[in-house]
Design goal:
Layout lengths: L1 E5 L7 E2 L2 E2 L1 H17 L4 E5 L10 H17 L3 E4 L6 H4 L3 H5 L3 E4 L9 E5 L2 E7 L5 H8 L6 H17 L6 E7 L1 E2 L18 E2 L9 E5 L5 E4 L2 E3 L16 E7 L5 E7 L6 E6 L1 H6 L10 E6 L8 H8 L3 E6 L12 H5 L4 H13 L6 H24 L1
Parallel strand pairs: 1-4, 4-5, 5-6, 8-9, 9-12, 10-11, 12-14, 17-18, 18-19
Antiparallel strand pairs: 1-15, 2-3, 7-8, 13-14, 15-16
Pfam families: Metallophos (PF00149), SbcD_C (PF12320)
Keywords: DNA recombination, DNA replication, Endonuclease, Exonuclease, Hydrolase, Nuclease
Protein name: Nuclease SbcCD subunit D
Length: 388
C-alpha cells in the first residue's frame, strides 16, 4: 500500500507579514498532482491543518477545496488535529465527511477506532491520534501522570489492544502529533511542554508498522518506522536550511517500509545574511540572494543610517533586520530573546525566582508549585478553546 504522509500545513499563517495563501494553494495543487502521479492509495495528514483555532475565512475556503479535490480522486484521506487546530471545529461534520473518504480524527475517544483500508495483501488499520493535551485526557485514558509520554503511551496501549484483536497479519499505521525524542525543533513550532517535559520516546510507537508524525517542521527520520514529514512551507528563518518534502511510503505485505521524499514547491528561497552593511551591499557573492527572503543581521559597530531602505535597494525581499555590533562586549550582550531561546516556561520561571532572590534557586516544593501553575494555565486555555 502506498501512503503519502504530510503534516503542518498551517493554513492561514503568514511569513513575516507576507501572505502565504497563494503558496499554500500551490502546495495543495502539488499534493493533488502527487497523489495522481504516484498512484497513492491513502493520504495521511498528521495535524496542524490550520495555524490557529479560529482560522481566517480564506484558509477555511482553501481547506474546503482541498477536501473536495482529494475526495474527487477517490483516495482515502486520514487527518488528525494538531495543537494549533481547534479539534472541535476541525471535526465538525466528521461523520458525513467520512462517507466521502475523508476521515477526520479529532476526538481522543476515537484513538482505537481505525480507518480500515485494504489492498491485495490484506487489511491496513490506520489509527488517528489527535493532539492529546495531558491535563485534559489523563483521567479519560487512565494515565498515571500529567505528561505527554503518559497520555500518548496510554493511547497507544489502546491501539495495540485493538490491533491484537484483529486478524493476524493486519498491518498498522498511526498518525500522531507530538515531540518525539531525537527530533530537531525549529523556531516555528508552538511549545507543547507541560512542566518542562514535552518529549516522548520513539518506543511509545512500538508494535505498529509506521508512525506518521506531525508537529516538528523539519522532515526527519527518528527511525525507519517513525518519521516526521515536516511542514510543506518554511514558516520562520530557522527553517532556511530545510528541504521541504512529503514522505511517499510503500508499506509491504509484511509491514516492511520503503520511503522516498517528494519535494514541495518553494515560493521563494530563504537566506540569513550577516555582516557590515557596506559588505552586504557591495560584495558580489551576495548576488545569489537578491531574489530571496532575507533575514539580515548587521554587525556594524555603529548603527548605520536608514539600513532597511538601503538593504531593500539590493535585496527587495528583506523581511527581518537585527543588529549585533561586532565589538560589543560579551557581558550582557545577548538580547532578551537570545537569552530565552531554547528554554522552557518552567526554566524561565525558576530563573526569575533566582533573580529576585539574588541567586537563591527555587527548591523542590516551589518547582512543583510552578509546574502545577503552568499545567493549570495550559489546561484552562485548552478548555476555553474547546468552548469557542
Amino acid at each position: 500500500m502506498r501512503l503519502l504522509h504530510t503534516s503542518d500545513w498551517h493554513l492561514g499563517r503568514s511569513f513575516h507579514r507576507v501572505n502565504l495563501l497563494a503558496a499554500q494553494a500551490a502546495f495543495i495543487d502539488h499534493l493533488v498532482e502527487a497523489v495522481r502521479e504516484h498512484e497513492v492509495d491513502a493520504v495521511l495528514v498528521a495535524g496542524d491543518v490550520y495555524d490557529r483555532a479560529v482560522p481566517p475565512l480564506s484558509a477555511v475556503e482553501l481547506y474546503d477545496r482541498a477536501l473536495h479535490r482529494l475526495a474527487d480522486l477517490g483516495v482515502p484521506t486520514v487527518m488528525i488535529s494538531g495543537n494549533h487546530d481547534s479539534a472541535r471545529r476541525l471535526g465538525v461534520g466528521a461523520g458525513l465527511i467520512g462517507r466521502a473518504g475523508i476521515h477526520l480524527r479529532t476526538d481522543p475517544e476515537g484513538c482505537a477506532d481505525p480507518v480500515v483500508l485494504a489492498d491485495v495483501h490484506g487489511e491496513v488499520a490506520v489509527y488517528g491520534l489527535p493532539y492529546l493535551e495531558p491535563a485534559l485526557v489523563k483521567d479519560r485514558f487512565g494515565a498515571g501522570r500529567v505528561s505527554h509520554e503518559a497520555v500518548l503511551g496510554a493511547a497507544m496501549d489502546l491501539v495495540r489492544a485493538d490491533l491484537a484483536a484483529r486478524a493476524p497479519g493486519t498491518r498498522s499505521v498511526v498518525l500522531a502529533h507530538a515531540f518525539v525524542t531525537g527530533g530537531q525543533a525549529s523556531d516555528s513550532e508552538r511549545d507543547i511542554a507541560v512542566g518542562g517535559v514535552e518529549a516522548v520516546p520513539a518506543a511509545v510507537f512500538d508494535g505498529v508498522d509506521y508512525a506518521a508524525l506531525g508537529h516538528l517542521h523539519g522532515c526527519q527520520t527518528i527511525n525507519e518506522r517513525v518519521r516526521y514529514s515536516g511542514s510543506p512551507l518554511a514558516y520562520s528563518f530557522s527553517e532556511a536550511d530545510h528541504r521541504k518534502t512529503m514522505w511517499l511510503i510503500d508499506l509491504g505485505p509484511a509491514g516492511e517500509i520503503t520511503a522516498e521524499r517528494l519535494d514541495t514547491p518553494v515560493p521563494r528561497p530563504l537566506a540569513r545574511l550577516r555582516g557590515r552593511l557596506d559588505t552586504l551591499l557591495e560584495e558580489p557573492g551576495y548576488a545569489a540572494y537578491e531574489d530571496s527572503w532575507i533575514e539580515a543581521t548587521l554587525t556594524d559597530p555603529v548603527r548605520p543610517e536608514d539600513p532597511m531602505a538601503r538593504l531593500a535597494a539590493r535585496f527587495p525581499h528583506t523581511l527581518s533586520l537585527a543588529f549585533d555590533p561586532e565589538d560589543r562586549e560579551e557581558s550582557g550582550a545577548a538580547s532578551y530573546a537570545q537569552r530565552l531561546k531554547g528554554r522552557s516556561d518552567q526554566e524561565i520561571a525558576e530563573d526569575f525566582v533566582a533573580h529576585v532572590r539574588g541567586g537563591g534557586v527555587a527548591d523542590e516544593a516551589e518547582r512543583a508549585v510552578l509546574q502545577g501553575a503552568f499545567e493549570d494555565v495550559r489546561a484552562d486555555e485548552s478548555r476555553q478553546e474547546t468552548r469557542r
